[in-house]
Specification:
The chain has 535 residues and is α/β, with parallel strands linked by helices. It contains 20 helices and nine strands. A nine-stranded parallel beta sheet has the order 5-4-3-2-1-9-8-7-6. Helix 5 links the parallel strand 3 and strand 4. Helix 11 runs parallel beside helix 12 and helix 11 crosses helix 14. The radius of gyration is 23 Å and the shape is globular.
C-alpha cells in the first residue's frame, strides 16, 4: 500500500473543512462558546432537544420497509414489531410516489419494486392489518402525493375506531427537495406549497400529534451534497415552508412544534456528530430570532436519521454492517430522535429478513450493551467536536445568506443553483475516488476478486404487478359510483378555489377513489412540472 507523507497530505472533512493535527482549548475560545453550548433541553439545544435525552426515552428504532403488495409489506411490519422495532417507516413504490395507479402504462415494470404499491383505501387497510395504530408511530416517506396517502391513513385509523388526535407519526411532505435531489415531484413548486399548507392546517385541527412535515436532507446528501450543503439546503427549504405558512395566516407556534427533520449519517464520523449538533443550534436561532416564535417547542430541531445508502457497496457487502454501525453510533452521539439502520444488502436488492434483523439488532446492541445512552451528549466539550460544530454553523450560514440574497429557495431552485451545487460536489467526490484521494474498501483499495454475497438476496416475485392490477380492477368494480362522482366533483371545485383540499380528498378516499384518479383531478388545476435543464 502506498505510504503518504503526512506533511504533504491535506486532511479534510467531506465539506472540505481542513483538520488540524490536534485540537486544544484554544480552538473553542469563541466569545459565545458557553452560551452556544448550554445545557440539554434548553436553548439553543446544541446538546440535545430534551434534558434527559436517552436516559428518559431511547430513540425510536425504525426500519424503512415496503415492497410488493400491501399484504407482503404488512407481513414484514409485523415481523419487525415482533423483533422489538418501536416504529414503522413505510416505503412506497415509484408509481405511488408519482400519483400513478398500478394499471397506468407508465407504471409497467415498477409496481412494488422500490416500495409498496398503494392504489386505494383497500390497499392501505391491508397494509396496516393487525397493527395498533394508536400505539405505533408510523413514518411515511411520501411527498407529491402526501395529501392522498395521509387521507387514506386517517380513514384506516377511523375505520378501526381510532381518532386523529390519537395518531402519532410523520409524513415527509417535503416537495422542495424533490426538485433538487430526488425527482418524484408532480405539480409545480408554488402549487405544491399550497397543498403543503393545506396539510399543515388540516393536521393542526384534526391530527394535533402528527408531524406534518419531515424536511429532508437525506436525499440531498445521497445525491452528492456535502454535510454542510445537506444542512444548508435542508434549512433553506424549512425557512421557505415556514414563510409560506406564515403568509397563509398560520401562527408559527401553531405549526412549528410539529415540524421535524430527516438527515443522513455518512462515514466521516466526527463531522456527522458535529453536523447534528450544529443543526439544532442554527434552527433554534432561526425560529426564535428570525420568525419570533415564542414557544420553545417551536425552536427544537427534532430529527430522524438514516444511515447512508450511498456509502454502502455491492462489493463485499458484509463490510456494510461495519459502516452502518459507525454511522448509527454517530447519529446517536449526535442526538437523533429516531433512527433507521440500512441493511447489508442495500446496494444489491431489497433487504432480506435476516439482513433487516441484523440492522435492527445493531441499534439494540448500541442501546442495551454499550452504555452510550447513559450520558447526554457524551462528546460535548471535545475540542474537535466543538470546533467542528462552530465551523459547520459558520459555513451553513454563509449558504443561507447566499440563498437569501438570490431571493430565497424557490428562486434558487428555479435558477438551478442548488442542483448545480449538488452535482458539482458529486463530481468532485467521484474524481477523488478515481484518483485515490478518497479510498473505499473493496472499491479502489483492498479489492477482492470474489464478490459474491455470502447470503441470500431477496427479489420481489414476478407476479406482484399482475396481482396488484387484478385487485385494483376488483376495487373499481365494487365502489359506490354515484357517491364517488359527487365527491370527485366537489374536489374539482375546491381545487379552483382557496379552500383547504384535505377534507375533499378525504371524502374521495372514503368513496374508494384511487390515488391516480385524485392526482389527475389536481393536475387539471395545478398542472404538471417539467424541469428546466439550464446547465
Amino acid at each position: 500500500m502506498k505510504m503518504v507523507n503526512d506533511k504533504e497530505k491535506k486532511h479534510t472533512t467531506s465539506s472540505s473543512i481542513e483538520l488540524k493535527r490536534i485540537y486544544t482549548e484554544q480552538d473553542i475560545q469563541s466569545p459565545d462558546f458557553k452560551q452556544n453550548l448550554g445545557d440539554s433541553g434548553k436553548y439553543p439545544f446544541t446538546r440535545g432537544v430534551y434534558s434527559n435525552m436517552y436516559r428518559g426515552k431511547l430513540w425510536t428504532m425504525r426500519q424503512y420497509a415496503g415492497f410488493g403488495t400491501a399484504r407482503e409489506s404488512n407481513k414484514r411490519y409485523r415481523y419487525l414489531l415482533s423483533k422489538g422495532q418501536s416504529g414503522l417507516s413505510v416505503a412506497f413504490d415509484l408509481p405511488t410516489q408519482l400519483g400513478l395507479d398500478s394499471d397506468h402504462p407508465q407504471s409497467c415494470g415498477e409496481v412494488g419494486k422500490v416500495g409498496v404499491a398503494i392504489d386505494s383505501l383497500q390497499d392501505m387497510k391491508i397494509l396496516f392489518e393487525q397493527i395498533p395504530l394508536q400505539k405505533v408511530s408510523v413514518s411515511m416517506t411520501i411527498n407529491a402525493t402526501a395529501a392522498v396517502i395521509l387521507a387514506m391513513y386517517l380513514a384506516v385509523a377511523e375505520s378501526k375506531g381510532i381518532s386523529g388526535p390519537q395518531l402519532t407519526g410523520t409524513i415527509q411532505n417535503d416537495i422542495l427537495k424533490e426538485f433538487v435531489a430526488r425527482g418524484t415531484y408532480i405539480f409545480p413548486p408554488r402549487s405544491s406549497m399550497k397543498i403543503i399548507n393545506d396539510i399543515i392546517s388540516f393536521c393542526h385541527n384534526q391530527m394535533p400529534r402528527w408531524n406534518t412535515m419531515s424536511i429532508s436532507g437525506y436525499h440531498i446528501r445521497e445525491a452528492g451534497a456535502t454535510a454542510v450543503q445537506e444542512l444548508a439546503f435542508t434549512l433553506a427549504n424549512a425557512i421557505t415552508y415556514v414563510q409560506a405558512a406564515l403568509e397563509s395566516g398560520l401562527d408559527a407556534d401553531t405549526f412549528a412544534p410539529r415540524l421535524s427533520f430527516f438527515l443522513a449519517a455518512h462515514n466521516n464520523f466526527f463531522e456527522e456528530i458535529a453536523k447534528f449538533r450544529a443543526a439544532r443550534r442554527i434552527w433554534a436561532k432561526i425560529m426564535r430570532d428570525r420568525f419570533k416564535a415564542k414557544n420553545p417547542k417551536s425552536w427544537k430541531f427534532r430529527f430522524h436519521t438514516q444511515t447512508s445508502g450511498a456509502t454502502l457497496t455491492a462489493q463485499e457487502p458484509e463490510n456494510n454492517v461495519v459502516r452502518v454501525t459507525l454511522q448509527a453510533l454517530a447519529s446517536i452521539l449526535g442526538g437523533t430522535q429516531s433512527l433507521h439502520t440500512n441493511s447489508r444488502d442495500e446496494a444489491l436488492a431489497l433487504p432480506s429478513e435476516e439482513s433487516v434483523r441484523i440492522a435492527l439488532r445493531t441499534q439494540q446492541i448500541i442501546a442495551q450493551e454499550t452504555g452510550v445512552p447513559d450520558v447526554v451528549d457524551p462528546v460535548g466539550g471535545s475540542y474537535l467536536i466543538e470546533n467542528l460544530t462552530d465551523r459547520i454553523e459558520e459555513e451553513v450560514n454563509k449558504y443561507l445568506k447566499k440563498i437569501e440574497d438570490m431571493g430565497g429557495m424557490l428562486t434558487a431552485i428555479e435558477q438551478g443553483f442548488i442542483q448545480k451545487e449538488i452535482q458539482e460536489s458529486a463530481y468532485i467526490y467521484q474524481k477523488q475516488l478515481e484518483t485515490h484521494q478518497k479510498e473505499v474498501i473493496g472499491i479502489n483499495t483492498f479489492v477482492t476478486e470474489e464478490n459474491r454475497p455470502p447470503f441470500e438476496i431477496y427479489y420481489p416475485p414476478k407476479e406482484t404487478e399482475e396481482n396488484q392490477i387484478k385487485k385494483l380492477k376488483q376495487v373499481k368494480s365494487l365502489r359506490p359510483e354515484k357517491r364517488l362522482r359527487s365527491s370527485m366533483g366537489s374536489l374539482r371545485q375546491a381545487c379552483q378555489s382557496d379552500k383547504n383540499l384535505m377534507p375533499y380528498i378525504y371524502d374521495c378516499v372514503k368513496d374508494m377513489a384511487t390515488l391516480g384518479e385524485i392526482t389527475s383531478v389536481l393536475k387539471e388545476t395545478y398542472g404538471t412540472y417539467r424541469e428546466n435543464l439550464i446547465f
